[in-house]
Structure formats: C-alpha cells, structure tokens
Structure prediction request, 653 residues.
Amino acid sequence: MRSIPRQRESTHRSTHLPDGLPDPRAAACTSLPGNPLAAAAARRFVRAALADWTGLGLPPADGFTDRLADDAVVLVNELVTNAVVHAGTNVELVCHLEEARDDDPAALVLEVSDHHPARVVRNEPAGSLTPGGHEFGRGLHLVAALADCWGVTYRPGLKTVWARLSIEGRPPGALPVPAEGADQALQRGLRAAEILAPVQGRTAREYDSDWINRGALSFLAEASDLLTGQFDEDMVAALAGQLLVPRLADWCAVWLEEEGAAPRLARVWHQRENCMEELRRRVEKEPPRLLETARGGPVPVPWPGGDEPGGGDGAAVAYRLIAGGRGLGTLMLGRSGLMRMPDEVTGLIEDFVRRVALAVAAARQYTRQATISRVLQRALLPGQMADIPGIAKALVYEPRGQGVAGGDFYDVFPGASGSWSFTLGDVQGNGPEAAVVTGLVRPWLRLLAREGRGVGVVLDRLNRLLLDDAVEAAEATARMATAGAGGGVAGVAGAGSGVGTGSGPGAVLEATQPRFLSILYGELVPLAEEEGGGVRCTLACAGHPLPLVLRPDGSVRPAAASQMLLGVVEDVTYESQSFVLRTGDTLLCVTDGVTERRSGRRMFDDADGLASALGRCVGLSAQGVAERIMREVHDFSPVPPDDDVALLVLQAL
Prediction:
C-alpha cells in the first residue's frame, strides 16, 4: 500500500544532476522552453529515460512497471504545465533513480524548476475558478495523489517542485521492457502508438481498469500530440486506428464524409494484420448509419458480418465525428469477448473521438486554404516568360510555405516599340493579403509599360495607384464601421495607411494593412551591331535589394540606386539608370529572401556576401549562375529559408 503523500518545504533537492549517485548513469536532465510544447517534450523525455535505464540494466529498473511509467508521465506533465502557465520561464527537468536504503524502497525522483522564484505554487482545489473566471484542473492535487511525497525548494533565482515515486518491485505477471525493445523505442522517437501497446502478460479480452483510471490522461496527452499538426485527414484516420488498437479495441474503422457526398471508408485497422482485408470487406458492405441526434456519444452497432475473422464476436460501438456542429464522419470500433463496452472505456474513447474530430476539421481547413492559395499562386504568376533576343535568362522561385501564396512576384513581357520589360517585386507580408496586391500590380505594370512610358514614370504611376487604392479601401472600411456602429466613427487615421478607428463602445477597427511594395523594374532594348551590340538596360529600384552586374573579368557592381518603397508617400519621383549589357555580362536580381537569409545573427548579404557569391560565378551560364547562388543561399544555414525566395538572372549572349 502506498504511504500517505507528504509535502515538505525542502532544501536538499537540487536542479542539477545529484552528486554522489552510485551510478552517474541513473540521472538525466534537460532544459525546456517556457511554451505550450514543453509538457509534450517532458513526457517524451521521461519515457526515454525509463527506457534507457531499462536497457542499461540498472538495478532499480528491475522494478519498473507500466503503472510507474504512467504515473511519472502524468506527474511531469502536471509539473511542467504548472511551471509554464504560472512562471512563463524556461523549465529545467531532472529525473534520477534512488536505490533502496534501510526501510525506503528504490525511487524515481522528478524535479521541475522554473526561474521565477517569487511565484506561488498553484494548488487550487480541482475544478476551482479564479476571480477572472479561469478554471484550474487537478493541478498539484494530482501530484499529491500519485507521489509518495513531494515538496518545493526555493533557491536564488530558482524554484523547484519535486516528487518521489517508489519503485516497489515488479508485481506478478508484469515484465520489464527488454533492452532491445527499449533501444528500438528510442531510435523510433518513442512513438506513442508503440508506447501505448498492451502490457505483456495480460489477456486481450480484459481491460486494465487501473490503466483506464490512472493512464487515461497520459494516453489522451500523447494522442493529442500525435494528432495536432496533421494536415492530411487520411493520416488523422490512420493515427486514430493505431492509437485505439490494440490498447482499447481489437479493431477500428473510420469513415469520413463531405457535404453532399457518400461516406468514404478512410481507414481500417485490426490487431491481427491477416484479418484486415476481411474486416474492410465486411464494414464496407454494412457501414454504420447513426442518427443526427448522436452527437459524439457511443452508439451500439451490430458486430460486422457475424463472427469476427479469427473467431468469436463481441461488442461494437460507433461515434459520430463532430466539430463545430458539423458531422465529419464516423468512428467504429469493437472488442471481442465482451457483451458491452464498459462505461469508463466508452467515456475515454469519447474524449479521444473529440480530438480526432478536431484534427480532421483542422486538416480540412488547411487543405482548403492550401488549395485556394495554389490557385491564387498559379493565377498571379505568369505561365511563361517572354524570350528576349540576345538574352539568356534563368529564374528561381521558392515560396516560403507549402500551399501558401507568397509575397514575391516576377514577370518578363514584351513592352512598347521593340522593348522588353522585366520586374521582380516583394509585397509586404504573404498569403491572401499579399496576393491581392500582386493581383493589382502585375496587370497595372503591363498596361503602363505598353503605353511606352519611361521606367521612372511607370513607378511614379504605380505608386500613385497603390496609394489611391489604399485610400479607397480605408474609406470603404470607415463606411462599414459607420453602418455597424450606428454612425459613430472617429474618422480615418492616415488615408494612406488604410486604418480606420471606430468610436463605438471601446472598439478599434483595423482595416486593410498598408500596401507597401518593393520592386525592381527594368526595360531592355537590343542594340544594333553598329552600336556595338548587346542590350541597353534601364532600371529603377524602389526599396528593393540592388541588382548586381557581373563582368567577364570577375568585377561586380550595383546596377541601380536605392529609392523609396512604393505605397508609402505620395510626393516622390523615381529616377532610372541606364547601362549596356555586353556579351558575357550577367545581371542578377533577387528579393530579400536571398539577401536577408539568416544564420544566427548573420545575414547572407552581410559584408557584401551576395556580390562575393556572384563574383565566383565567372564563366557560368545564366542557369549555372542561378543554381550556384541558390546553392550558396541554402547552404548558408541548416534551417530552411523563412521567407519567399525569388531570383532572376539575365545574361547577354
């Protein structure tokens, strides 16, 4: 029997690895960020430590049980969550084993420290409400219920909450995890689907009520971690099946449905792999039909097709997947050898089903947004770029995120009177807002260029159009605010800023964001042989990274001067610069996704990094220059670029 938990104000606990351990391998520590991801990382860390100690064959590890592992995971989850929510600092986690001494059994000690020594350790009654209406969960009452003893240590700049779990030996029928299995689990990142597998030595026909009561929180936490962030609804269905089978069910089937379409069997999972196809055939023949009144609770359904493949029948239930009041599908599962599912099991699965439904809804929302973004991207970027006589060209375009419309854009098109125009631009932000501006700028730019206006004049007009559009958007927003607030509008703050301020009951209405735009715009005119050949290039650069010219001798120089962003101020005149691209000369144009590529505190273009990279491209073709620069950009940092990247190379032949 467990001893009564004791709370002590202790001074002997330390957040460093304990000194004097018989085996230094019996301790592990980590530092976690003070954000919502910390609890999940702590749970994985504790499971990894237990598996590692088991694999090493440390004496206390002989007494490890599933119950100890579940208690440790729940404890560390509560302690880390408490530290993150109420302290908000980085969290230090230490786990170590204590060998048996005198009358004290061996123990697992967990220590969670935060760097807010003045905070009060929260320990409200379960389900209590603060004056602000915030509900607290089990908190440290759960810690007190699970731990043999626990306490708080105050140190300069540090507060530590520790808990001790006795390792009282292995109960009959419980086997330790083999060393090979522990190593494999570590190598696979301790996948929750494997961690939650049935305990060895227990029959498949009985539920572990102790696990249901004590390990449910750990199961739901691990399940949430796996389901969160999945952007494919079929992957969500597959994970749901692997998490439920075989811990809570012998088999599982998931149907997904779209409005106006028949339900689709997305996933079937059976603990016996050779029974999976037969189960699929049976459930496809008789899909469950649940009433709309079944709002996520368990509904008993007939066992599919009579006897279970492999023998016997049992209890089967189905749950509607509902999120936001809309039905998304049905999850059906069964357990052989039972007349009915226990209430504690159906309650746990109901909580799990809610998480599955939310994950499916999130995946569908992401898919819809990604599809819209891809359609926008295809519509906003040119299908092909015009060929320019005497010029070889190469383009690289890499939007920052998959399925997200970027803020960078490009175009190469015929201009007026035998000229060709090219542009490379970057709209403030990305996504739909940036796509709106790109959708305006590209056609405006083509119209202005084909009217035969000079390069500087084109940017002047484009700047005016952007400012006019921002004013119209702000005025429209102000009118909507007036209608919504009964005529109470304080006016439009800064017509060019596109921000309106409502004077309703304490409300502030933010309208369209400022439509700032950096752009490089140029015009190319091929020269006759009597003029020396080559191509005359006229450029204007508005708040954009400066274009660079590479000569065959390896020299590199800027090809334009920096000027004001478009869409910022009205009274500005844009100037252009002209030069000749002779045979072998290369013009490189990039967006700030190249120049501002980061590696720690350094940027790619620090100390003229882009010019140095271009200088190493002597003798390469236009495509070769583009590939070399992009390779250096990607190699500059081990992490993927965090901004859209666009690069245009024009080389005189």
Q: What stands out?
A: The chain is about 35% helix and 25% strand.
